[in-house]
Structure formats: structure tokens, C-alpha cells
Amino acid sequence: MLYYAAIFLVIALIAGLFGFTGIAAGAIGVAKVLFFIFLLIFVVTLLLGLVRR
């Protein structure tokens, strides 16, 4: 999931570089959502791992 967030971030940076601000804004929005979902899943998994020990 973090991989897809990084891909959308790169797409947003390239689109912003070429002046496609609408596409860049959409891609950065998707990248943010994917990153926060990844972060949430990471924290939940980390806490579950600590609880099982």
C-alpha cells in the first residue's frame, strides 16, 4: 500500500511539473489517503503484535 502511495506521489509531482494542476491535486489526494490507511494498518498491526507477547 505504501508503494501505491509513493507511485501516486510521483505522478502528482510529474503532473505538477508539467502544469497539470488538476491531475496533480487528485493524485496527491489519493496518495494522502493511501498513506494514512497504510499508517493506520501499521499501527494496528504493531499494537496487536505487542499485545500477543
Major β-sheet profile: none
- Judged by helices, strands and strand pairing, the structural class is mainly alpha
The rough form would be described as rod-shaped
Helical stretch tally: 2
Radius of gyration: 15 Å
One letter per element, helices H and strands E, the order comes to HH
User: What value does the average pLDDT take?
Assistant: 93
Distance between the termini: 26 Å
Low-confidence stretches: none
Describe, in short, the structure shown:
91% of the residues lie in helices and 0% in strands. With 53 residues, it is mainly alpha-helical. The chain has one domain.
Topology:
Layout: H1 2-17, H2 21-52
Helix pairs in contact: 1-2
Describe this structure in words.
By secondary structure, the protein is mostly helical. It has one domain (2-52). The protein has 2 helices and no strands. It has helices spanning 2-17, 21-52. The longest helix has 32 residues, at 21-52. The protein starts with a helix and ends with a helix. 8% of the residues are buried. The mean pLDDT is 93.
